[in-house]
Fold these 4 entries.
Entry 1:
Amino acid sequence: MKTRNALLGALFLAATAAVSPTLAQTSLRIGLAEDPDNLDPTTAGSYVGRIVLAAMCDKLFDIDEKLNIVPQLALSHATSEDGKTVTITLRPGVKFQDGETFDAEAVKFTLDRHMTAPGSFRKAELSQIDKVEVVDPLTVRLLLKAPFSPLIAQLTDRAGMMVSPKAVKEAGDKFVAKPICAGPFKFVERVAQEKIVLERFADYWDKDRIHIDRVTYFSIPDSTVRLANLRSGALDLMERLLATDIPTVRGDPKLKLIVSPSLMYTGLTINLANTDQAKNPLGQNAKVRQALELTIDRDALNKVVFNGEFTPGNQWSSPTNPYYIAKFPIPARNIEKAKALIKEAGVATPITLELMVPNQPDLKQVAEVIQAMAAEAGFDLKLRLTEFATSLSEATKGNFQIYLIGWSGRVDPDQNVINHLGCNTPFNWGKYCSEKTQAALNEARTFTDPAKRKPAYEAALAQIEADRPLIYLYHQALIFAHAAKLQGYRQPPDGIIRIQDMKLAP
């Protein structure tokens, strides 16, 4: 049945692509593993949403393949000696996709919206900004509450994406249905759970680097189906190929394989205080959480599910990252110690818990392996497969006990931890809040020198290790594949597809 569905999906997309041969030559078709939650930079929260938004919404700054921060809508920035004032010079001659001029007023409007709009996921990312001032049409000044070293890095992602003030004011809460930004492609249509269509913006400021007329993103959760569509010619590019499919791509002369390190991690987020769902032995006792972690063999998990292509991990930074804290190595599996901790906690077995899992083949397999491993110590994990965007909504509502979920990673370590384990931050679904952890993370934000920041992260991790609100499992490799006719594709470590400089050969 799985193979039959894959072939049917491939035939459907191939038939769609074959409608207009001329259009197909200048249309890029991308297969996504999930359907984005939404396309408003202020309230969006998904990795695949970042991929689509990158084509629609330029940022003040961007990152290159070596993780260097480079100008985009901003030309430069300067920070005052006390670290509390950041002045940004903007690029002239930029227009939004509705024809409005991009200027300092638009930057102030967007940043203020990010910081104050109901439901904004950008509030925590910009929380240290006290005020945004317009100096002149091409200069803005950010007044900070305290020195904030991650700020420019924050502006390389959704917090730095600029929206048209006129469009927001006219559309109100319907802006999410037709966002208007200053990127190379403008929104055309969206069919939920199926596709998102964008078309080239003729007045894009950097239009000489755009060689594609239309981009269509197809939501195809099953990697086997995505690959079948790529092999049939119905897709030009797919993200997150299964590691087990690497030999297939390598053996196909019509395809190109890209495997590279990433900033990502995947882990088990545990509900500690978000609704009554947290009222269970795991949510209320750190010893039980430590016991669950000790049932997991990360190396075996990596080999069984990912053919050893991923990197086992127990922190937000991978073991090869300069911010990795070697003082806390990956714990070895120890069933006897896990059982002893459960006994010390005074908890009877079996411990029945629900594990919410985005309904994707690889994550389902990860969950099944963990389920089997944990059972040996007395954990009875019931898997709840959930559509990806729905799982994000359920997590926000607190409708989970354990959530198997990943983070796509950021260039600055701050956003790889504080968004999930800082007090009252937007992706802290388990509602973990520790004064010691928060104080250490806040201290790390005040330093720019990694040698000074790292001890603060070590202090934060020491408390997180004791509390175990999140059990880190592994760091993904970016495994993408594309048609050989697609030229100019570059894959930076953030896994975000940038359309600039891409071409489709005849």
Note: The CA atoms of residues 302 and 349 lie 28 Å apart.
Entry 2:
Amino acid sequence: MPDSKKLFADLMAGDDELAEAAAHQIAAFGEAAIPALGDLLNAADADTRWWAARTLALIATPEVGTLLAGLLKDEDLAVRQCAALGLREHPHADAIPALIAALPAEDQLLRRLAADALIAIGADAISALSDVMQNGPQTVRLEAVRALAKMQDQGTIPVLFAYLEDDSAFIRHWAEEGLERLGVGMTFFQPQ
């Protein structure tokens, strides 16, 4: 078994290749690695927090989802992006409020990663995304409708139908796209 102290030293060594290898080896410890990684989330150094988030994202447990959701408020943009990416890879319904809160971010990549994580969560996120469609600013509404369209869940049909006549051509496009992906509105002709 690898020495955990050396692995954590490698994780923080400043060498991306070494750190990535260490992240995978630490993640192999599973839940046993979570407390030490959780401690690193409080480090002053953003790079340390990023590698802790990266490593946590390799461990699929509900506890990790909660930790990653908390990182969506980190002061460092790269840490927030890493957390959203981790939640996309390991969807966690309890992260929905934090992901919705990340949708208005100034950074387009963070908005996209948060929406992608909501897509991965699926049906549990429909209600929150529907609320965003009713009350959010245009850039947030656009990510919300894209998420609903890509979800390919029958529960999105009423929400998408509601936006087929939206003032925004982009919103209408995604509403139509989502309904088309679900096969709604398709007409089949029988040969005579």
Note: Residues 1-59 form one domain.
Entry 3:
Amino acid sequence: MKRLSEGRESVTDEERSGRPAASRTEENIAKNRQIVRENCRLTVRSIAEQVNIGRETVRKLLTEDIDMRKVCAKMVPKELTEEQKKRRVTICEDLLERQDDILGRVITGDETWVYQYDPETKQQIAQWKTANSPRPK
């Protein structure tokens, strides 16, 4: 207010001395994007440790520059072990023996094996997604 009353007409900040913001560069944006593409379940803290940048800077890079956000899904696709596949086959065979008309009520899908589990925390299932990423299932 004092400067405006003294005759200053611009309300934008003037150039100040000090250290320029060097962390939000195109190189760091590309590094963060690559790290998240390799593993979308990393935390901001682990990404910051890999890139050697502050956590808040990494969060801003991900949310503002790369336009990503954390999304959680209850069903997490996972490859089943051989033991789990065999157990499913055994259960299905048992159901077929018990039910005469079960085939009329079976709903089929693709050949993707999905294993549901109850994670200990919500953070274990959170993933980084962009606005264009498919919705978690």
Note: The mean pLDDT is 79.
Entry 4:
Amino acid sequence: MAIRIGASLALVAFVTAFYVSLVQVNPTTIAVSYLVVILLIATQWGIAESTVASVAAVLCFNFFFLPPVGTFTIADPQNWVALVAFLLTAIIASQVSGRARQRNIDALARQRDLERLYALSRALLLSEGSASIPAAIARHIAETFELDAVGLYDQRTDTVSWAGKDDVPIADEKLREVSRRGHTVHDPTGLTIIAIQLGGVATGSVAIKAAGLSDTVLHSIANLAAIGLERARGEAATAQAEAARHSSELRATVLDALAHEFKTPLTSMKAATGDLIASTTPGSRDHELVEIVDEELDRLQGLVTDAVQMLRIDAGDFAVQVERHRLMDVLQRTLPLFQHRLDGHRLILEVAGDVMVDADRGLLALALRQLLDNALKYSPPTSTIEIQAGSNGATEIIVRNSGSVIPDREQPHVVERFFRGARSRNVPGTGMGLSIVRQIAQAHGGTLSLTSSADAGTAFTLILPRGGPR
């Protein structure tokens, strides 16, 4: 910048010397010449250089061309007005021209970023065979954006792949930590580490060492990396299906492949809505509509994940990893998923903060979602839904709705697989939800029971022993 400022002062000096030594013209012509030079400087170099040139031009104009010449004194009051007007005009003109130049630079940068994002997405989606593995994805990102260092952590395989010309300035464990916590970290070494999530579940992270890329571009790169990882997993699931076609593992493999077939387009749409949210004005109708689409995509991804998990449980293809959790923590992650479905329902939560439960967190969350979904589907909008919990040797969780009653003859069959009662015919469902909850309870060594009456409504009680299955 110092060189450009010096060149700007030299141009002002040249105009001054030209009119002092070679050509005699009126002050108006000289002022216009200064303005032309200032506008050229603003257009080519920027606001700082043109502002310095404006001040220098005013001083030269006063000293060399306004009487008394050779001093900074102005004898005629009208010349004061002319000098101030010239100064304001020069500064405002330089500011406007400089900002227009900056906007043009920003537009070109955005266009370049969009072209690179398109090239990256094309490279990832059209690559064949092993080109979608984490190492190749990291290499595509580094080559497309000319980055010094790119790291990609795949949580499923617990591998970290690096690409770029620079040495890796951080340990791989930093990427694993960001993936677990699900947030973005700006490391002092210059790396930006972004968690990759699908359906609200962390699947990895990407580290990028680059200056000048906006947060929107960085998150777009992360979304495209997620698509590449999901595509690689889909290909792996397909390959496993081919290899396990005549084995007992075929069913689970087919379910995985089916889930990935759903999630790949969902992830692409999620990446698109993320870009649209960043590019629309908060509070505008377009922004609100895109946010609705984004939320519904999250819900759809969750439904796909739950459906596959339920089919796995129904097939007996699942393992229970019991850990001690605070029940309120599990509920706080589960209840927001149902906010848009509450309508007129009144939700009452009676769970002490110190209630602990020994369970597989993912399976427990799935059981709670199924119980809440059942309560919402089979109770009118004005009814009350209660969640109660206590601990006395075992953890007891009760989900009650006050608006529906199950006939006595149907109660023994409600938790059976595919059972649909008489009043269920107009309610969407598969008849698997409560059966899955019972299987989860039994896998933990617990039970699922129900009571239903006109006075108390319908309550499902999930009891899980402390210490896990016995």
Note: DSSP finds twelve helices and twelve strands in the chain.
